[in-house]
Design a protein that fits this description.
D-Amino Acid Oxidase, Chain A, domain 2, FAD/NAD(P)-binding domain, about 25% strand
Length: about 375
């Protein structure tokens, strides 16, 4: 095996895979290393909703940019990636939440997105199994869903076609400041640059990366073709996603191409325990029954958990790790890593290759967390 590369990527989740595809397509020689299987980290345990969010301008810019890139890639994705452009319905329980529907509608449509306000009748027509007393919702048409580990596999296959070498079961012990990686056997492989795409484990190599694990539970149901047409999320999800402490649940359901439904979601900030916790699961499922009572007749076939790689300012770290220009980081995408993967890869590759970027990279710059800058966060 060749022992020197333009780019060594540590981590073959959706972020590492996207970076590999972009760097290899840009003519760089690439080595990807993962201690486990491809997409075997949180990429293999998540929901795969590609969704535009507008909590901040920077979040909107990256989710929108990246979603556009997914939609452009859609026709090339293999069947196994289960890409469906189903759209999202943000559901409002009452008139107070309808105000947020109107705010979101204005913000999205002013920025060129296709959205539609649904009153109670239109909502029930779009999703007949929703509770009859909901006030309405906002349909965002560009959003889609995907099966993330298959998407990661596809992206790595594309990178391989462009010359990248991909090695699973290869645990990196150290990322060295000169732009190299070391293994426990003593082998060192050098790169012009190394990208840390280790998700929740990124802080093991980048001490300044303030990434915390945020636990989530998911449940998948039996197949019920035609039961659900869109990804549906209660507007209260945004409050849950914002909470920096404690446990929260919100109604979030996704139609899979298989006819199954993926039910979420929960957020726990202080749990390191990967086991399914029945009190959280039960709270999450009861919340789903409140919004979609007919789900009581649908069997859940499997439940599991995963950890989102979260930062305090709800933005990922994309850029140089330190001043050497040798070490780069792409991690900390919390619940938006699938959505933001392609955009992240473009931005990082632009920076590495000194190319102009389509959106401003500054808000995601890791140096915002460097000592002395943290008061701005
Ligand atoms: C319940 C839940 C639901 C979610 N739903 C969505 C959603 O609907 N939409 C969305 O956009 N996002 C969602 N997310 C978030 C999304 O899953 C993550 O943001 C994304 O998968 C992060 O990808 P990653 O590549 O950074 O991390 P990972 O997928 O964890 O990849 C990191 C890789 O690094 C490898 N690694 C670590 N250490 C080493 C080492 N020393 N040597 C070699 N390899 C190493 C790991 O093995 C792993 O494969 C959800 C997350 C959860 C938990």
């Amino acid at each position: 095996m060749r022992q020197s590369y333009d780019v060594i990527i540590v981590g073959a989740g959706i972020i590492g895979a996207s970076c590999a595809a972009e760097c290899a397509a840009s003519g760089l020689s690439v080595l990807v290393l993962d201690k486990g299987p491809i997409g075997g980290g949180v990429t293999g345990t998540c929901m795969g909703h590609i969704v535009i969010l507008d909590d901040s301008e920077a979040q909107f810019a990256l989710t929108r940019y990246s979603q556009r890139l997914w939609n452009e890639l859609a026709t090339k994705l293999p069947e196994q990636a289960e890409y469906v452009r189903c759209g999202t319905i943000w559901v409002a329980a009452d008139q107070e939440e309808m105000q947020e529907v109107h705010r979101k509608y204005k913000s999205y449509t002013e920025n060129g997105l296709e959205a539609e306000i649904l009153d109670n009748k239109a909502l029930l027509k779009a999703e007949p199994h929703l509770a009859a007393d909901l006030a309405g919702g906002l349909l965002v048409k560009q959003d889609s869903v995907i099966y993330p580990p298959a998407a990661a596999y596809y992206l790595l296959k594309q990178s391989h076609k462009n010359g990248a070498v991909v090695r699973s079961a290869s645990e990196v012990k150290a990322i060295l400041p000169e732009g190299a990686v070391g293994f426990s056997c003593g082998t060192i492989i050098t790169g012009s640059v190394v990208i840390n795409a280790c998700g929740c484990q990124a802080p093991e190599f980048s001490k300044m990366a303030p990434i915390k694990k945020r636990k989530g539970h998911l449940a998948i149901t039996e197949r019920r073709d035609g039961f659900l047409n869109h990804q549906i999320i209660e507007l209260g999800y945004l409050k849950s996603a914002h909470a920096a402490a404690g446990d929260s649940v919100a109604f979030n359901i996704q139609p899979r191409k298989t006819g199954q439904m993926l039910v979420g979601s929960s957020r726990q900030n202080d749990s390191d325990d990967p086991s399914v916790q029945h009190h959280i699961l039960s709270k999450m499922i009861k919340r789903a029954f409140k919004y979609m009572p007919d789900l009581r007749d649908v069997q859940v076939t499997r439940t599991w958990t995963g950890f989102r790689p979260a930062t305090d300012d709800k933005l990922p770290l994309i850029g140089p790790d330190g001043d050497s220009g040798k070490i780069w980081i792409a991690a900390g995408h919390e619940g938006l890593g699938i959505t933001c993967a392609l955009g992240t890869a473009k931005l990082l590759c632009d920076m590495i290759m000194n190319r102009p970027s389509e959106i401003d990279t500054k808000p995601y710059c890791p140096s915002r967390f460097a000592k002395g800058n943290t008061e701005d966060v």
